[in-house]
Amino acid sequence: MSQPTLKAAMIPVTPFQQNCTLLWCTETNRGVVIDPGGNIDSIMDAVAKTGVTVEKIVLTHGHIDHAGGAAELKERLGVDIEGPHEADLFLLQTLEQTGRGYGIAGLRNVVPDRWFNEGDVLQVGNQRFDVRHAPGHSPGSVVFVNPENKLAIVGDVLFAGSIGRTDLPGGDHGTLLRSIRDKLMPLEDDYVFICGHGPASTIGQERASNPFLR
After folding, report:
1. pLDDT tens, position by position, 63-78
2. What is the distance of C-alpha 102 from the center of its chain?
3. How many Cα neighbours within 13 Å face the side chain of 28?
């Protein structure tokens, strides 16, 4: 059986227990940090323990628990930030204000070095992820799909047994369901996905049992 060419380490961050993901290509030991919402020391410790060379920071969307620490991590690692879609600019420009509303200090507004659009490619070492714009949880949410390893990174679009909330600014329930239907449900059942909160799951498991998708 061939060895996986991608590995992932989950680092729970912020009071929201968001899954910051250190994702790397095993052929090159080069990787990305996805959704560094906060707790930057914990993220840096994980990077040091794995020995991964982080080439970029990647954001699935602009909410505070996913993007609030991106500016600080960028400074500490000296790398660019890529994503999400530009429709989440209003969220990224108000991270400090939103954080104060939740009683979370130290968050900083941020603008990425590269916005993602439908059909773009995210490169992780030798591995390519297809970028799909999947609004609904937020207007600029994106998901990443790697056919070689049958792996998807979905942010807060889809969860094990649930879907993203749509009661935050820019959220829309109908739009989110369409994004899941059009961008994720066409994937084969054995695709594993890593989400922004809670355990990973498979597309097949959610297709069969997720009450929001029936």
Report:
1. 999 999 999 999 999 9
2. 21
3. 14
- Cis before 199 (ω within 30): no
Residue 144 lies in a domain: yes
- Length, in residues, of the chain: 214
Closest residue by Cα to residue 20 from 46, 2, 1: 46
DSSP for 113-178 reads SB---TT-EEEETTEEEEEEE--SSSTT-EEEEETTTTEEEEETSEETTEE----STT--HHHHHH
Residue 13 belongs to what domain range?
6-213
What six digits make up the tokens of 193? 């996905």
How far is residue 150's CA from residue 162's CA, in Å, rounded to a whole number?
Answer: 21
Number of domains present in the structure of the chain: 1
CATH classification of the domain holding 100: 3.60.15.10
Query: What would the pLDDT profile of 5-51 be if each residue is shown by its tens digit?
Result: 999 999 999 999 999 999 999 999 999 999 999 999 999 999 999 99
